[in-house]
Write a structure and sequence with these properties.
single chain
Amino acid sequence: MIKVLTYLLPGLLKVLRPEVLKKSVDAMLDVIEDSVEKSANKVDDIVVLPLCALIRRTFDVPDND
């Protein structure tokens, strides 16, 4: 699976329009954030949620829930 993504990702990044790519990243981050918030583990709240926020800020991906 990782090998497939490694080959497909560069091509997808070239083809997708920036707004479509941002919506896709937003959807992916939403799934991750929701999963982390529902879990009882507090370590992932401390580590993963700030990383998601950093990705959003760095790539200007708004949280369009």
